[in-house]
Amino acid sequence: MERTRYFVDHGDNEWLVIQEGAGRPLARCKTKRQAIERGRATARRRGHSQLVIKGKNHVIQKEWTYGQDPKRYLS
User: The whole model's pTM is what?
Assistant: First the structure.
């Protein structure tokens, strides 16, 4: 079972919470902190997901995985 991936990324003077493959952002926030809080709440609520935080330069800074990580159980 694949994880749903969410990203916090910088847009035009705003921070976005984006679901991978979605056509538009789930949320638009004024601050990075607000976007991270919104992204973490969404990822936790939906379970079996991953939240990837990017900086203004779009480089990954941090990741959180929620629910069971399928890669840990492959043998």
Answer: 0.84
